[in-house]
Write a structure and sequence with these properties.
heterotrimer; A alpha/beta (about 240); B mainly beta (about 425); C mainly alpha (about 260); A: about 240 residues; Rossmann fold; 8 helices; B: 14-stranded parallel beta sheet; transmembrane (chain C); ABC transporter permease (chain C); membrane (chain C); transmembrane helix (chain C)
């Protein structure tokens, strides 16, 4: 198992966000984490990354508990939702800095070429447009070779060409046998990329399964409608 | 003028002394291995106006009575050791000169004020070039006049006030010149009680337990060009009239009750061209009237001037107030004193007409000084932002401090 | 941690605000020295500035930096780096660059003026050391406040309130208690109350070198005995150091438990 989550609880103030999440994620698939606003998607991802500290429950990454550990994050590439970088440093300095911090081999050159970032390398991050920042963000995420990749809204601000490049990258990583977790509001993108869907509702895993299983369960023929229908039907997640 | 005539008279006396000596006086040589081996014995044998030359050596003698006009001179600083048995020299005659002796070990007593040299009811004496150590009282002038105490060195080792004496003491004496002496480590460096027309010039008085210079009930005295440093409480002038204080330096008198100068019940005095530097309080004034403070420098004192109790018609003019924590402190709301044309380093006004005088009056009394007068411990808040804000508001609209206390013509440039 | 420190530091010394801060001190130093021509007076004026401004600037800078780099912090949190290292690195980066601006900004005019030949060198270095301590203390306190408050405006408000309290209100309360309890011996109380506020402590430390006549002259025995000696000086420095360490420990503690 790449990720193993047992009985995870998390409360922010009075708001119980995660109510006993149990989850097993295997190797080499693309998982889409979906759910309405406030369902606990981000909290779940941040718990996996160690940014949120759970009240109760265990998380294991690659068969190792992450409690009071930080080295496991070397096995994760994370693309944050809003990329707000230090404004006064240049793109190449940021790349250099992250490489320096992670201290692992990287292959940023091909990625830079892929997204056409060469002209921006010597520019300060504060001068870049949102889309360019997102491209830098993607380069930072994919330049390392890690078994687990987590992408939070990866399509934000991307032009169609860059979007195609991104899809290619994701599929390429999947082909290398990596586990990929994606959250996105673009259902078309999810339908295209995801092997399995995790649907969170009110702090619990409401549905887990392939897109086919989802259609079958909800009796819909359209992915977007199937998702919408999930919230109205009574059935619970079944492990596949 | 008075000092000049005094000086001339003195010169005359000296010349006369020399003349009489050369004409008819005999010279006695005293040394430890000579025929005359004791000072006391030789004095008994000598006639009036004779000269005693005391050769180098140690003379263990005390209670040496000089009862006739004599010139006693030490050659190469002979030591007169009183062995702590009592007083050492006692002068009871006019025209006595003591010169160049090294006197040590005066007897300490709790009932008698033993001195290294006591002059009683005598005139025209001269005490010069003496070195006094291990003493109780140093030079004690009692009901004497027209004498001179010149260029002596008095080094005490006083620790407690109750068993130490004063360096130079004048009691009911008059017309005496105290000049170029160095006094340290005694109780009061120089002490005057009921003594008038005294001139104190060019002395250094330092590290004394109590006061460097102390006046009590003494009038018409002048002290100039003296240095008073690191004394327990500084210089005290009390219950006296017509004292002239000029060109003196008061430095580093630190402590809970330490002043550069303490004035108590002083009237009609003149204080000018003095320097008060790094004292806890530059001048502490209590019940003193009609005093002119002109052209003095107050530099880096805690309080430059602290006024306690009723003080009327004093004038402060042309003084420099530089970097004192407090320039002036008052403990009442009344002010009858004049501040005019002084330079204040903390003045922040402007001079648009460029006449060298600030266009806005300066208020030298801070509210904080008023607070500190009331509760001394609050001094720990010195220079805190809170106190600055409070002081500022008080300066804008005075509530606690006298509102007519201001220098309407503050100088823009420091008086040279 | 050193890597984060390095990057935060580089980031900051390239920012506009560091230059403004640096130029402010540079101008201040030059104006004081070359318009006054008196090193001792310049040192006194500088003390007033340092006691008031350094804590304020440290506080505001600390809070601003923390909130501005929040997203970047999140980026770092997902990297294989220890949590406390991230915050320690940022903290030392901010405090370090502010201290550098202070030391260079004031140091250059003073050295040009010929400080090294004047006897104010000790006063001056004490001024800088105290300034550095105050920077570290107040950046630390502002980081603790910022990390405890998600809401930017709230955090900013609390930080400025804290500064206001320590710089002004505290002394007002201090003064009031001294006056109310003037019948009692207040030496120990004054001593403790001074120690409990880093601004007061720094002020007293500097004052002892400048206004020693007023301060030593008028306070009671314990206070004098304490601050007048080398031991008192060392203890004061130790307390300042403690004041520096406490917010750092608080920051580590908070960082360990915080959710992002």
């Amino acid at each position: 198992m790449t990720i193993e989550i047992n009985n995870l609880y998390k409360k922010f103030g009075k708001n119980q966000v995660l109510k006993g999440v149990d989850l097993n994620i295997g190797k080499g698939h693309i998982y889409a984490v979906l759910g309405p606003n406030g369902s606990g998607k981000t909290t779940l991802i941040k718990s996996i990354l160690g940014m949120v500290i759970p009240d109760k429950g265990d998380i294991s990454i690659l068969e190792k508990s992450i409690k009071k550990d930080w080295r496991y994050r070397k096995q994760i590439n994370y693309l944050p939702q809003i990329a707000n970088f230090p404004p006064n440093i240049k793109v190449k300095e940021l790349l250099h800095m992250i490489k320096d911090l992670r201290n692992s081999p990287s292959e940023e050159e091909t990625l830079i070429a892929l997204f056409g970032l060469e002209p921006f390398l010597s520019k300060k991050l504060s001068t870049l447009s949102g889309g360019t920042k997102q491209k830098v963000n993607i380069v930072l995420t994919f330049m390392f070779d890690s078994p687990l990749i987590i992408l939070d809204e990866p399509t934000t601000g991307l032009d169609p060409k860059a979007l195609i490049c991104l899809k290619g990258l994701i599929l390429n990583e999947k082909a290398k046998g990596k586990t990929i977790l994606i959250t996105s509001h673009i259902m078309q993108f999810v339908e295209e990329m995801a092997d399995e869907v995790l649907y969170l509702l009110e702090g619990e895993i409401y549905f887990k399964g392939t897109i086919g299983q989802l259609m079958e369960q909800t009796g819909q023929h359209d992915f977007e409608h199937a998702i919408a229908a999930l919230t109205t039907t009574e059935s619970h997640a079944e492990n596949s | 003028m008075r000092t000049d005539t005094q000086h001339n008279a003195f010169m005359l006396v000296c010349i006369l002394l020399v003349l009489t000596q050369t004409v008819m006086a005999k010279t006695w040589t005293v040394c430890t291995s000579c025929e005359h081996s004791s000072i006391k014995g030789t004095i008994e044998r000598a006639e009036a106006h004779d000269t005693l030359l005391v050769q180098k050596g140690t003379y263990r003698e005390y209670e040496i009575l000089v009862d006739k006009p004599l010139y006693i001179k030490g050659i190469g600083y002979p030591i007169v050791d009183g062995e702590k048995k009592g007083e050492i020299f006692q002068v009871r005659s006019d025209h006595v000169t003591l010169d160049g002796l090294f006197i040590i070990n005066v007897g300490v007593s709790y009932t008698k004020d033993n001195a290294a040299i006591r002059v009683i009811q005598s005139k025209d004496f001269l005490i010069q070039n003496m070195v006094l150590e291990q003493l109780f009282f140093g030079i004690y002038l009692e009901k004497s006049s027209h004498g001179k105490v010149y260029h002596n060195r008095i080094i005490g080792e006083a620790v407690d006030e109750y068993n130490s004496g004063n360096g130079i003491q004048l009691w009911y004496s008059s017309d005496i010149e105290v000049r170029k002496n160095h006094v340290q480590g005694t109780r009061d460096g120089i002490y005057l009680e009921f003594s008038d027309q005294i001139t104190i010039t060019g002395n250094t008085s330092m590290d004394n337990l109590r006061y460097g210079l102390h006046f009590m009930f003494s009038n018409h005295d002048v002290y100039t060009h003296n240095t008073f440093e690191n004394n327990g409480a500084g210089v005290a002038v009390m219950f006296s009239k017509f004292i002239t204080m000029k060109n003196n330096t008061f430095r580093k008198n630190w402590g809970t009750a330490a002043y550069g100068m303490l004035l108590k019940e002083i009237n009609d005095a003149e204080i000018s061209n003095n320097t008060f530097e790094e004292n806890t309080i530059g001048i502490n004034i209590e019940g003193s009237n009609r005093i002119d403070y002109t052209d003095n420098d107050f530099i880096g004192n805690g309080w430059a001037i602290r006024v306690i109790g009723a003080c009327y018609t004093n004038t402060f003019k042309g003084n420099n107030f530089l970097y004192n924590s407090f320039d002036i402190s008052y403990n009442s709301k009344l002010n009858d004193n004049i501040f005019e044309s002084n330079y204040w380093s903390s003045y922040t006004g402007y001079d648009l007409d460029r006449n060298g005088i600030g266009d806005v009056p300066y208020r030298p009394v801070k509210l904080f000084s008023y607070v500190v007068n009331r509760t001394p411990e609050t001094i720990v808040l010195l220079r805190s932002l809170f106190m600055d804000i409070i002081d500022f508001s008080e300066r804008v609209s005075p509530v606690f401090t006298p509102d007519n206390l201001q220098d309407a013509q503050p100088l823009m440039k420091i008086r040279p | 941690m050193l890597k984060i420190l390095k990057y935060s530091f580089y980031d900051l010394i390239r920012s506009r605000w560091s230059y403004v801060y640096f130029l402010f001190y540079l101008t201040l130093g030059f104006v004081l020295l070359f318009l006054n021509n008196d090193v001792s007076k310049a040192v006194i004026t500088l003390m007033n500035v340092i006691i008031v401004l350094i804590p304020l600037i440290g506080t505001i800078f600390g809070v601003m930096y923390y909130y501005n780099s929040r997203e970047f912090t999140e980026l770092l949190l997902a990297q294989p780096i220890k949590r406390s290292s991230i915050f320690m690195g940022q903290y030392f980066g901010v405090a370090g660059s502010l201290t550098l601006s202070l030391v260079l900004g004031l140091g250059i005019p003073f050295v040009l003026y010929g400080l090294l030949r004047s006897n104010a060198i000790f006063d001056f270095s004490l001024l800088l050391v105290t300034g550095a301590f105050l920077t570290f203390i107040f950046v630390g306190l502002s980081f603790v406040i910022a990390i405890s408050n998600e809401n930017k405006i709230k955090g900013f408000g609390y930080a400025v309130l804290l500064w206001l309290f320590l710089a002004v209100v505290y002394d007002g309360l201090f003064l009031m208690s001294l006056i109310v309890f003037e019948e009692y011996p207040l030496d120990t109380f004054s001593l403790v109350a001074t120690m409990l506020n880093p601004i007061d402590l720094s002020r007293i430390l500097i004052l002892l070198k400048l206004d020693i006549s007023a301060l030593l002259g008028y306070t009671g025995a314990i206070f004098k005995k304490f601050f007048g000696t080398d031991l008192g000086f060392l203890v004061s420095m130790a307390v300042l150091f403690l004041w520096t360490v406490l917010p750092i420990l608080g920051l580590r503690h908070k960082a360990k438990r915080k959710d992002f």
